[in-house]
Design a protein that fits this description.
188 residues; two-stranded parallel sheet; two-stranded antiparallel sheet; mainly alpha
């Protein structure tokens, strides 16, 4: 069973996740401080905290930088109306800077740098598709095959199939490939 081969691999990945998330938070801390100040002025609360589905379908608290007003309903990104996103929030989303606080989620072990993007508990179709394929046996991640391929949560079945493909083929080369590909895509 392919999940057994991932067990030893996950220990090594956890070391990389810890090291890179710690280093990332350290290096990006001056930028985070500036973004926090601007976010505070923009909407009064720069940090967005949301409950997400994690490994084994356990809940965890995901951290992001806020791109919408405080009273906005908690929905998946593709369901949020663009009118709800502040101009500064649009900048954060376009540059993916809103994802930086998730490095803390990686640091404490709720997430990995590479894995299926964590969904909301109200995304029942996606949860069912992932459950059928055993996707919840791995930690959710900041990036992965679906993200570098442009596949979003709009198509739950395709996303779950893509997540499974990534899990089956993951190795150290793919781990670094997804990270660097994500960085390159966001620099453009």
């Amino acid at each position: 069973y392919f999940y057994n081969s991932i067990v030893g691999f996950t220990t090594m990945i956890r070391i990389f996740d810890f090291f890179f998330s710690f280093l990332g938070l350290l290096i990006l801390s001056p930028i985070l401080i500036i973004i926090f100040i601007i976010g505070w002025l923009d909407n009064g609360s720069p940090l967005f905290i949301q409950e997400r589905v994690g490994r084994y379908q356990r809940s965890f608290i995901l951290l992001k930088l806020r791109s919408m007003p405080i009273n906005t309903l908690s929905v998946a990104t593709h369901l949020a109306r663009n009118t709800n996103i502040s101009p500064f929030g649009q900048f954060l989303r376009k540059t993916k800077l809103d994802e930086i606080p998730q490095l803390y989620n990686v640091l404490i072990g709720d997430m990995s740098l590479v894995g299926p993007r964590p969904c909301l508990f109200n995304q029942k179709r996606l949860i069912n598709e992932r459950k059928k394929r055993g996707i919840f046996k791995v930690k959710p991640g900041i990036t992965g095959l679906a993200q570098v391929s442009g596949i979003t949560m709009k198509n739950p079945k395709l996303l779950a199939k893509t997540d499974l493909k990534m899990i089956k083929q993951i190795n150290l080369s793919y781990y670094f490939y997804y990270i660097f590909k994500t960085i390159i895509l966001n620099i453009k």
